[in-house]
Design goal:
The structure is a homodimer of 207-residue chains. With 207 residues, chain A is of the alpha/beta class. Chain A has two domains: 70 residues, Winged helix-like DNA-binding domain superfamily/Winged helix DNA-binding domain (Arc Repressor Mutant, subunit A); 114 residues, Rossmann fold (3-Layer(aba) Sandwich), CATH 3.40.50.720. Chain A contains eight helices and eleven strands. In chain A, strands 8-5-4-9-10-11 form a six-stranded parallel sheet, with helices on both faces. A three-stranded antiparallel sheet of chain A has the order 1-3-2. In chain A, strand 6 and strand 7 form a beta hairpin. In chain A, helix 1 runs antiparallel to helix 4 and helix 2 packs across helix 3. The radius of gyration of chain A is 20 Å and the shape is elongated. At the A-B interface, helix 1, helix 5 and helix 8 of A face helix 1, helix 5 and helix 8 of B. Chain B binds a DNA duplex (22 and 22 nucleotides) through helix 3 and strand 2.
DNA sequence: CCATGTGAATACATTCACAGCA
DNA sequence: TGCTGTGAATGTATTCACATGG
């Protein structure tokens, strides 16, 4: 039974996008039904965990049959609020910013870059993918005019905190941070940190 | 007391790189001593957790004083085995591969790209940063000759599993995977998966 | 029968709180 | 005194195992 009064552990929320990704893949292979068992094998979580995770949000399956892929996919999109597109700004027009601006995997999964910013005068005005790089001075105006809630930080570590402060000041509540430094933000703001080297280091421990 | 016979939880290993990053930053600011409290504030973990995590590996602090930054940094580098450089290959010379090839944050943290590969004939032979893009046919030879244990996968989702198989076949035991798909590998091989969109989706749940 | 959904049991992770030492 | 290192207590997460219903 759906019970939105329950608090859902953050660790569960973190797995939902992976379930969604797997479902979209199955769906693209023409599959119509799957099971917690099959998802378990594809994802490496136990089938019990998958069932329990989903049960926080409702009853999506049919006993004896499994899950109707399209329906579960749609449900997860709504739970994660990615059934409509989120406008994002990208701050940082270096190599990484360039790769992100050209990445074509955002829209199908609920996100769209609407503007790109950089502090470096030599970058400003340059075309990057479909956007013209704007100066930082225009950031706040863009955030407010377009009511942007999501941003990507792709600047050097030394500039990241100042950029984060400006974004938060402009109303952004979700930050995807590529700078290798911890950001300090108000509690209402979410930060997801990507640090490939930290990932590498946690693997070499085992080698 | 150091007790390497204890099994250290993977979640603890995952935090060590963050401690290391913070220590390196403090060190670069000229600081010589820190405390679990200070690290707690910088990183957002509790001070008790930081002390307990470190205690899996030894006694690094001085009661009443705290931790000597340089010593703890050196110790963590050794625990994570990043006191020497790991040779890596990069597979995928698209926009993302280009950004990774030009990223200057690897060497200071224990990693070095030694070769770049791509399947696309139009990319092969092209210069990318200091490397000339090599064809996939040369991958296995390079892995064996240079005894490479670490690789970055920056290819489209559809090609990722085949690339992973080749890398594992060539002796790679740690994969940094940027393709938005789950990889299936033998148990001895570690995979760290980077999916920015999954990160974004787990934040929009809360908005 | 088969696979879900879920309480109960287990396993794991974090925090508490304080003895002990610089 | 101040801060570490750590058992004990608490809090979370995962797995078990089975009643339930298509």
């Amino acid at each position: 039974m759906s019970n939105s009064s329950h608090h859902v552990p953050a660790i569960v929320i973190g797995r939902l996008p992976l379930y969604l990704r797997a479902l979209t893949q199955l769906s693209s292979e023409g599959r119509r039904v799957t099971s917690s068992q099959e998802l378990s094998e594809k994802l490496g979580f136990s089938s019990a965990q998958i069932r329990k995770d989903l049960s926080y949000f409702g009853e999506f399956g049919k006993q004896g049959t499994g899950y109707e892929i399209e329906y579960l996919e749609k449900s997860l999109r709504e739970i994660l609020q990615v059934h409509h597109l989120w406008d994002m700004v990208l701050v940082g027009a270096g190599d990484l910013g360039h790769a992100l601006a050209n990445y074509d995997g955002f829209e199908s999964r609920g996100f769209r870059i609407v503007a790109v910013f950089d502090a470096n005068p030599s970058k400003i005005g340059k075309q990057m993918a479909e956007w013209q790089v704007q100066p930082m001075e225009e950031l706040d105006k863009t955030l407010r005019e377009r009511n942007v809630n999501v941003a990507i930080i792709a600047v050097p570590a030394g500039a990241a905190q100042a950029v984060a402060d400006e974004l938060v000041e402009g109303g952004v509540r979700a930050l995807l941070n590529y700078a290798p430094t911890t950001l300090s933000v108000p509690p209402k703001v979410k930060v997801y940190h990507i640090d490939p080297v930290a990932g590498l280091q946690s693997m070499t421990y085992y080698l």
